[in-house]
Specification:
single chain, alpha/beta, 11 helices
């Protein structure tokens, strides 16, 4: 049963979006405006593989910074780009008013057995990218974390070693890949603490707008989908109203259980939709005063 907290003063959220195909996409900006009322700590905008959405990402964070009260965070990858190219993008983000960057290694080019290979003149990995960002300015830097092991890692221990490097180079926050077993996230939090890694670990929450799509995402990133979760969504493909109610309940339950374990910040993968995320935040008690005003 979900416990409704009277005091939400210590609770914070953030949202992830991908840049719209058109800078004038009205549906995207309606989503931004609606979720702005919740009062997120920041909102992040993704950066396509190999910088394929670079210009759209830049245009989106620039408009968020200039036309809303939100604090934008720009994703940045180093795959397939020289250090000079990446540094130029960092400086463009700074000129657009962005002081928070989510530093990611990035996925290798698509293909069977594709492996990440650093650009000969580029950053070697995410930790190296964090160092480069911090050298260029006083940026807040977040990184990624994988509760169930990065697909390219040999073990969780290897992941933890990389996490320690990122923190040493200046990352202050690690946002997790989505997960549906809270135990995986809590185990990672315990291991980070046991190693003395000084970084905030934030759970990434993915509300389920399409179970088939989420299952595909999960297969690519190594996230386990519990059979009990699959049963909840069975037969709802053609019943979007019921599916959305179940999805909001599932996400709210997950957040409530994590709050009982002392988690206070939640990062939502919105898939550029406001409905489910907004509903979940209202269940948590966020945005109520702003909406009334």
């Amino acid at each position: 049963m979900i416990a409704f907290a009277d005091d939400v003063s210590g609770l914070s959220v953030s949202f992830e979006f991908f840049p719209p195909k058109s800078p004038d996409d009205d549906s995207f900006w309606r989503t931004i405006r609606r979720l702005e009322t919740v009062g997120p700590e920041f909102v992040s905008v993704t950066y396509g593989a190999g910088g394929t959405t670079r210009d759209r990402t830049l245009a989106t964070v620039r408009r968020i910074a200039s036309e809303t009260r939100l604090k934008p965070a720009a994703h940045l990858t180093c795959v397939g780009a020289s250090r000079a190219e990446v540094d130029a993008t960092i400086l463009e983000f700074a000129a657009a008013g962005v002081r928070h960057i989510l530093a990611l290694r990035g996925d290798p080019p698509a293909g069977v057995g594709a492996k990440f290979t650093p650009h000969p003149d580029g950053y070697r990995n995410a930790a190296d990218l964090v160092r480069g960002i911090r050298e260029l300015g006083d940026f807040e830097v977040s990184v990624s974390a994988y509760p169930e092991r990065h697909p390219d890692s040999v073990s969780i221990e290897e992941d933890l070693a990389f996490m320690a490097d990122k923190a040493e180079h200046g990352a202050s926050r690690a946002i997790s890949q989505f997960f549906f077993h809270n135990a995986f996230f809590l185990r990672l939090r315990d291991r980070i603490a046991a190693r003395g890694i000084n970084i905030e670990l934030v759970p990434g929450i993915l509300p389920i707008t399409s179970f088939a799509r989420v299952s595909e995402f999960a297969a690519k990133c190594g996230a386990h989908v519990p059979p009990a979760l699959a049963r909840r969504f069975e037969g709802l493909d053609d019943d979007p109203d019921t599916r959305n109610l179940v999805a909001a309940m599932v996400a709210a339950e997950q957040v409530d259980q994590l709050r009982r374990e002392g988690v206070t910040h939640f990062h939502f993968y919105t898939l550029n939709r406001a409905d489910l995320v907004y509903a979940i935040c209202r269940v948590l008690g966020l945005g109520v005063r702003a909406q009334a005003a």
